[in-house]
Amino acid sequence: MPINIKYLEAFQENEFMHVIAKAVGLNVLFNTDDNKVYFINQYFKYLSTYVDTYCFCLLDNHVHWLIKCKSHEDLLDNLSKLNLKDRKKNQQDFLENKICFERAMEFQWKDFFISYALAFNTKFNRKGTLFVNPFRRVAIKDHAHLIHLIIYIHANQIKHGLEKKIEQCSYTSYSSILGTQSTKLNRAEILNLFGGRDSFIELHQNTINVYYAHGKSMED
Q1: How many whole angstroms from its chain centre is CA 100?
Q2: What's the rounded Cα separation, in Å, for the pair 20 and 13?
Q3: Count of H helices and E strands in the chain?
């Protein structure tokens, strides 16, 4: 079944995007916690030079991210610092202005998915496609949409009935944002969006109480 075009918006420099990756059919993306750790590490390995990461949530059969694309100039600068022998063809093509920003971003996301799928298939003696293609991406419309999405991502395991309290949700960015250890997330900017740590916690909890305590849904 074709994916609705509203989920295939173009990556734009300096813009927030909601990115969703789903497993094909009834497959899962993760069989073990080690798979999830490897997935997160591969994500930052492949995408940290392309996007800034604000939040994420891993479920067994799909993943959500809130990211902001780097600027065109920052991406050029990041890729130019790679040794020539380490650059992939699409990265060199972007540096030579042979492909646009959107294509460069899309290539890198797909390379990340392929890298994980190959490792997953090898580990579990599996063959075939793992991720739904094309993967989904939605542009963020305004500040209210941005705040709503951050809470939606952090509460996604509650939405699906896997946990009852947000503090119990594993493999999300919620605890990292509230923590003090170093992180690759844009922690300070996220907390500032909510008006501080206490407001971040309170608005998450209040929204969860409204939408999930009464069986409502925040988003499809």
Answers
A1: 22
A2: 18
A3: 9, 4
Kindly give the residue spans of alpha helices, DSSP state H, lying in the chain. Answer: 33-47, 72-80, 89-95, 101-123, 143-154, 156-159, 174-178, 187-194, 197-212
Q: What is the pLDDT of residues 183-210, one digit of tens each?
A: 999 999 999 999 999 999 999 999 999 8
* Separation of CA 179 from chain center: 20
- Which tokens sit at 76? 């050029």
Question: Residue 141: which of 50, 2, 12 has the closest Cα?
Answer: 12
Q: Please report, for residues 32, 63, 188, 191, the alpha-carbon distance to residue 183 in angstroms, rounded to integers and kept in the order given.
A: 23, 19, 10, 14
Query: 0.90 cut: is pTM over it?
Result: yes
Partners of 55 in the β-ladder:
66
Alpha helix positions (H), 129-196: 143-154, 156-159, 174-178, 187-194
Task: Give the tens place of pLDDT for each residue, 75-103.
Answer: 999 999 999 999 999 999 999 999 999 99
**Which amino acid belongs to residue 62?**
H
109: Cα separation from own chain's centroid: 10
Closest CA to 129 of 150, 114, 144, 109: 114
In whole angstroms, what is the distance from residue 125 CA to residue 106 CA? 28
Alpha-carbon gap, residue 177 to 23, rounded angstroms:
27
